[in-house]
Amino acid sequence: KGKGKGPQGKRVTLKMAKNLIRVSFSGRRRLDLSKMGITTFPKCILELADVEELDLSRNMLKKIPNIIEKFQNLLWLDLHSNQLDELPTTIGTLQNLTFLNVCNNKLTTKSLPEELKLLKNLRTLNLGLNCLDSVPTTLGSLRELTDLGLFDNALTAIPKSVRKLPKIEKMNVKRNPLPELMEKEDEVEFVKRIETLHLVQEKDLCPSCLQMCQGERDEMKRLENMTPSPSDKPSFPSLITPNSTARDNQEEWRVR
Q: What is the pLDDT of residue 241?
């Protein structure tokens, strides 16, 4: 097999990569190498390191090398759905990054480089679907963050420095063993349980259960009777029986 060739992919050449550059409406150039079965970072793309956006998502990459620092113009980097168990320390040199997606990998809290805190212009950071057991407090340095994905990890707490980020608009922490989320799940489970109805005949109930059910039914009737009706509710007593009044004088109002 050729270098960099994955089981379901093919080796990326410079010519191939050049043909995969797309220009957005805003003039940004994106190198799209997603869904190609790439297993190793294709070093040939260093020739295209002046692109503003790089998409390596949905591949089989296990490592991003330190040479990623060559992509100094990057505003947007998508690495989601690979097999990354670490990020290079040089990622902190990509000072222009506003978007970083490393969702659905094998990252642990220890494998997140402290240099992430250097990405001062980052607005979107997706760390969901990884193996994080805590959130580094240093992420509180990312003062421009508006969108933070932390879903589907093993988090039991969110540090105050992260919760209090000044520009944060969306923080997805779903499906983590956070105490507040566990309480909500218990409430939902309780609602599900009380929605289950078992219908039985009165003769099959023991005296105490029958008395309790009758008491609850009487209480519901009492509450219904106490419900005030609007005083301005319109009343049409002559329409209780269809045409009861109209039958006598219908010749007067019928259009002739």
A: 43
